[in-house]
Amino acid sequence: MLSTDTAQSQVADLVAAARAAGADAADAVYFRNMSTQVSVRLGELEDVERSDGEEIGLRVFVGRQSASVSSSSLSKEAVAAMVERAVAMAREAPEDAFAGLAPEDRLLKGDAPEIDADDGEDPAPDALRARALEAEEIARSIAGVTNSEGAGASAGRTLMALATSTGFARAFTSTGYGCSASVIAGEGAGMQRDYGYHSARHLADLEASEAIGRRAGQRAVKRLNPGKLASGPMPVVLDPRVGTSMLGHLTGAITGASIARKTSFLLDRVGTPVFAEGITIRDDPHRPRGLRSRGFDAEGLPTAPLALIDKGVLTTWLMDSASARQLGLSPTGHATRGGSGAPGAGTSNLYLEAGTLSVEALIADIQLGLYVTELIGQGVNGITGDYSRGASGFAIRDGQIAEPIAEVTIAGNLKDMFLALTPADDLEFRRAMDVPTLRIDGMMLAGA
């Protein structure tokens, strides 16, 4: 695997070659991903996959014209052809008044924050196999589990390097590990499935496979013999693993590109209450070992912790340089990109702060409601905020979690849902987006 120094030099040399070929400005990005994945089913090894791939991307500017190309080959011939093709394409591209690199005076200077993203481990396939087998064995041992969809364990390392013609050149590595199990409970038409999963940057932080398997089995069994609820308005409570979707709907609505295109239900809402007063939502790119931690963004700008929602008030858009220029604002250090194409904008480790109520207290006054553990479909309108999705979970009766529920639909409007949202106190940092248990009053449920 390339060292960070070698990768950094490689993208810097590619940018220099683009300038020599006639580009007024350029940036280049390099990714190398190495991973091992092991899958088992019914106690037997099903698959071992080892992948090692790399991609290098180049974006060039000729005046306000730009083009992007990428290649999975880093031979001298391939790189030379990529430079020539990119410059030729840019000269034929339409002008874009907002295109360009990030402002030079805003680039990261000095050392990037330490995010502890690489633990140096490289577990052997046998160790991953043992982890997957244990997760499935424990899941299958739960009374009521009748079959398995399999279990898996994975390990990987990524190297990313970025260079710009304005003088930025940095690289970093990160590791990632995962373990999962998915099992089936019941028989025939009454079968139900569920899963357990965890991922971490450091192998030492990965949850024990026994706990993952037990959670998968218990979840599947609890879903057996589901019923329905009568249609009508009622409180809906979102389990943390599905409650994170609320953060996804928020970020999609506040990216600079959505605002510039006027395709967001939160247009013109910066500086105004979007959530209830007690709600704060933070983006923390510097969390040690965070799944999306980063010391600089995809344009070379420094990153910083930020409250996107501060006591209910929307504080900013998420902007790369192009969308910021279009909006007449400054980029926010949230640029993201792959190996090809222009940057977009996105979050790092995003979370909604915990509330003050326990989960038991949060639902104590609900006479009839729905506790959601699974959402189905994509029925969300990003322009109007209208929301309608299939759901499964459990009834809430007289303040207690009751029988399993399936095949219902919950509906509302995200603007109203955000304002009606109340968090519990059970926040855990397990994903790139994290929320505690969330209660949303006043939603409509379509059931029996």
From TrEMBL:
Q: Which residues form the Metalloprotease TldD/E C-terminal domain?
A: 231-447
Q: Which SUPFAM superfamilies does the UniProt entry name for this protein?
A: Putative modulator of DNA gyrase, PmbA/TldD
Residue ranges of the Metalloprotease TldD/E N-terminal domain?
26-90
* Pfam families (UniProt xref): PmbA_TldD_1st, PmbA_TldD_2nd, PmbA_TldD_3rd
Q: Which InterPro entries does the protein's record reference?
A: Metalloprtase-TldD/E_C (IPR045569), Metalloprtase-TldD/E_cen_dom (IPR045570), Metalloprtase-TldD/E_N (IPR002510), PmbA (IPR047657), TldD/PmbA_N (IPR035068), TldD/PmbA_sf (IPR036059)
Residues in Metalloprotease TldD/E central domain copies: 120-224
Family stated for the protein in its record:
Belongs to the peptidase U62 family.
Protein name stated in the entry: PmbA protein
Species of origin: Sphingomonas vulcanisoli
